[in-house]
Amino acid sequence: MVEFNVNGTKHSFDGDPETPLLWYLRDLAGMPGTKFGCGLGLCGACTVHLDGVAARSCQTWVSDLDGVEVTTIEGLSEDGNHPVQVAWRELNVAQCGYCQPGQIMQAASLLSETPDPSDDDINASMSGNICRCGTYPRIRAAIKLAAERAGQ
Amino acid sequence: MNTYVTQSKPVRGAVTNVSRRGVLLGLAAGTFALSVQLPLPASAEEKLYGGAGMPGGIKDDPRIFLTIEEDGTVRLLCNRAEMGQGVRTGWATVIADELEADLARIRVEQAPGNEALYGNQNTDGSRSMRHHFQPLRRIGAAARAMLEQEAAARWDVPVEEVRASGHKVTHANSDRSFGFGELALAAAERDVPATAELVFKAPEDFQHIGKENINNVDNLDITTGKPIYGIDKQLDGLVYAVIARPPVYGGKVKSFDDAEARKVPGVIEILEIDTPDIPSAFLPLGGIAVVAENTFAANKARLLLEIEWDAGGNQGYDSTEYRKTLEAAAEQPGEVMRNDGDVDAALAEAANRISASYYLPHLAHASMEPPSATARFADGKCEVWTSVQAPEALREDLIKRFELAPENAVIHSMLLGGGFGRKSKPDYASEAAIISKALDGRPVKLTFTREDDIQHDFFHAVSVERLEGGLDENGKTVAWLHRTVAPSIGSTFAPDVVHQSPFELGMGAVDNPFDIPNLRVENPEAAAHTRIGWFRSVYNIPHAFAVQSFAAELAAAAGRDHREYLLELLGPDRKISRAAMNDTAVYGEDPELYPYDTARLRKVIEAATEAAGWGRDLPEGKGLGLAAHHSFVSYTAVVVEVDVKDGALTFPRVDIAFDCGAVISPDRVRAQLEGAVVQGVSLATLGEISFKDGVPEQSNFDGFELTRIDASPVEIHTHLVPSLDYDSPLGGVGEPGLPPVAPAITNAIFAATGKRIRALPIRDQFV
């Protein structure tokens, strides 16, 4: 039995220890905001925060989460107004939007570690997240906008 | 005001009331009276075009699409799939203007699949706004008139004295007003005004249509992770399924052993699903389904299945060999699809002849949301929640497959996490329904893993395009021979299809605008060995790549500047009739309304090259490349700046100029163009599905690579040709940005390095 928090709420799990956090969240916990994209850690759609740091939930076993604070897109902010979410809306980043929860979680993690990221920082942090619609120029701009606001 | 009116398809007999819910307060609550807006039935001989020519036609009764709640909330049903192209935002934008509603109080909902009720719902071909802009204006204007009439009646004043604005109707003379919510219920009982009586807003008065500052209506849901996509559906008692499908197209299950798979904790059921004969159209491929308490357990058990397959006739499909077959076919004459002048004589007399063969591989769609559907087949009723581009195709399949009464096949359309053509085919949703039925009605969510998605896609067709040109002593092109060789999507529906259909040839092959007196287009045979199903932009991708590469090769052969030469090839401004090009498809549009207007292509070429600083001095290793293309009755030109150094290819800047006629949602149009550029970079530099022994060699994003942010163009500048002419027929938006991107890239690499790349993907060919 492992116990961990998801967005501040206590969860416990004693199922198949190899169950990835992604499928726990989506199928067992009823929290489908975290997206399935590839299952191999290649696309970033399933990105969540583990103790505040971005991680691929499809590559994370629930059995390894004892005592860990998991944050998903549903819990990134109480009111949906994390600076990254606000910047995303302001620049109309999303097209289909499916990869954007993962992009936003990755960007939020980047900004918490690197408040004023360079283009190279953005490339290094964000290149694990695929967007098939091709919203990359706006993702870059939105990260810079969020960083600029935070720096003011 | 002279409006361009898309004729509605004739409606015969009664139309059922639209009470989707128990209680509706508003326009949709009214009794559906067949009193208005139904055009006379067209004679059987009359060919219908545009939306009217599609199954279900166009519907424009406001009571079908609009509900106004007591609190004034406007609920707008969108009858087209949203897959990122921004159709929901476009719908709300048009309604806000013509209804005089507050955009923020419009809630867009997806119409269930039902073309008899909602009109055509097939979301592909870049048609949604181009077919629905005028109907949406009629819907908004008619509802506004009904609200105004109701207010005028209550005040007992002439309707001319009242005016709707800002979500209310006001009588200025007496300083009185009613909110929309106060009027809606009674207004819905009024007759819907006839189209001829409607007063439309003048384009110069638009507050939303054509304005840059309109936000995507789904921004909040997307950025907060709301369960809006087909794959997100939750239901009580839901179980989860994956399917082991035949690895080779046309294969069948010979035998299987599921003993080990059944031992996996959480496995509920394992069952065989019938495999169809091929060509199998949009039917499921069959195989062995595993149902479990969660998707992970189902997938884990699937890995333990021991299945013996009968591979069938396509097990020898090999991309390397097939390329040779296509190239050999391209060396021989094919069916003549357009023939101007005498190409053979002109080539024989030419001062200079050049030829080139271009190769483009299969592509997978790989939308980030893989195909997925949730179905519940209980009590004789089949309900499906999914993300499909063509809900009616799914509905028809369910009705036929399970012999259902139409009202017992219910399609709840959810948002698509990308579609790009893959989700025009509803096979995955049929699979979910089949499994739910087999489980006596337990609700089932069927998910394609990424491996399933890439290995069992409907693949964008591989293609060889051979071009030959003759130049006279002045370097002018006097002869053009284009042989296009590729399996047709028709092969997915019927056996022995070896030629492209008119609609495929009308995507940049026969509709060639060049002012060349001797021009022939041929289509040699190509047989399909997998399921063909086009990617976004369809056959324009190979045709534009070949035509726009070869135009640059001709310019180089003539020793001329590419831009100048391309404009000369285009010739004097003129409107070319579709008949003159033997283009019988015209994207389903009326050829009289949509001639090929070469001035529009010229203007986007000029706009893109001017913005990009065409002709400017560039340091070594940098180059500018140009390509222009008409598709989906819109015109696009792209200039790409490449930087080739130290074994790396980067894209410092891209300029894309676009003319789709008048624009509804400029920001969403720009987003489509930006996305088209990135997707064009992706397919040009990396995109390839190759087959070995009948099976795709790629299965996930490690093999089927997509461009990531670090390789995306640094700057993308979009240039929209301004137009206030909202009465003229519109062009498409979702697809036309993509086709010229790849040839602009390879033309830029040629400019930078002198190296001509004729086969995609580019990978490291630029080195």
Can you characterise this structure?
Chain A has helices spanning 21-28, 83-90, 100-113, 119-126, 136-151; strands at 2-6, 9-13, 47-50, 53-56, 69-71. Chain A is globular, with a radius of gyration of 15 Å. Chain A has 2 domains: 2-75, Roll (Ubiquitin-like (UB roll)), CATH 3.10.20.30; 83-151, DNA polymerase, domain 1 (Orthogonal Bundle), CATH 1.10.150.120. Chain A is an alpha+beta fold and 152 residues long. In chain A, a hairpin with a 2-residue loop joins β3 and β4 (53-56). The model of chain A has no long low-confidence stretch (mean pLDDT 97). Chain A has a 5-stranded mixed sheet with strand order 2-1-5-3-4, covered by helices on one side. Chain B has a 7-stranded mixed sheet with strand order 9-10-7-17-14-15-16, sandwiched between helices. A 5-stranded mixed sheet of chain B has the order 12-20-19-18-13, sandwiched between helices. The chains are: A alpha+beta (152), B alpha+beta (767). Chains A and B meet through α1, α2, α3, α4 and α5 of A and α6, α8 and α18 of B.
Any descriptors?
heterodimer; A: 152 residues; alpha+beta; Ubiquitin-like (UB roll); DNA polymerase, domain 1; 2 domains; 5-stranded mixed β-sheet; 5 strands; globular; B: 767 residues; Aldehyde Oxidoreductase, domain 4; 3 domains; 19 helices; 28 strands
